[in-house]
Q: What sequence folds into this?
C-alpha cells in the first residue's frame, strides 16, 4: 500500500499532482493558463458561439458570445457595436460578451457579416 503526503506542518496543504505546497503549485498555474480561453465546456476551435443564459441572473435572459479572437480593447468595441444593433445593454467579462435579452438570431447574422464563423450553442 502506497501513501502520499497530503499535509505538512511546515508548508500546509500539498498538491496531489506535483507534490509541492498548494501555494507553490505549478500544475494549478498551468491548468488556469490552459483553460483561460476554454470557457464553459466549449472548445477553442475558431468558432464563435452564441448562447442564451438565465441561470444565476434571477430569471432574466442574457445572450453570451464566446470564442471571439479579439484582445480586450477590440472586444469592448465589438461589444459596443453589438449592443447598439440589439438596442440593449451588456458587458464584457472574462473574454465573453454578455448582452441583456435574447438576441441570438440578430447577433448570429451580425457576427457572420463581420466575417467570423459563428453558430448558436445550446438548446
A:
Amino acid at each position: 500500500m502506497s501513501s502520499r503526503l497530503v499535509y505538512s506542518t511546515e508548508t500546509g496543504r500539498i498538491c496531489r499532482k506535483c507534490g509541492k505546497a498548494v501555494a507553490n503549485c505549478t500544475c494549478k498555474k498551468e491548468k488556469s493558463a490552459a483553460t483561460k480561453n476554454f470557457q464553459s465546456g466549449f472548445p477553442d476551435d475558431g468558432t464563435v458561439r452564441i448562447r442564451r443564459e438565465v441561470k444565476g441572473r434571477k430569471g432574466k435572459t442574457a445572450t453570451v458570445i464566446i470564442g471571439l479572437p479579439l484582445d480586450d480593447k477590440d472586444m469592448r468595441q465589438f461589444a459596443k457595436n453589438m449592443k447598439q444593433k440589439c438596442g440593449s445593454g451588456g458587458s464584457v467579462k472574462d473574454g465573453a460578451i454578455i448582452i441583456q435579452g435574447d438576441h441570438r438570431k440578430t447577433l448570429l447574422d451580425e457576427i457572420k457579416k463581420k466575417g467570423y464563423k459563428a453558430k448558436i450553442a445550446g438548446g
The CA atoms of residues 24 and 80 lie 40 Å apart. The longest strand covers residues 48-53. Confidence is low (pLDDT under 50) at residues 32-38.
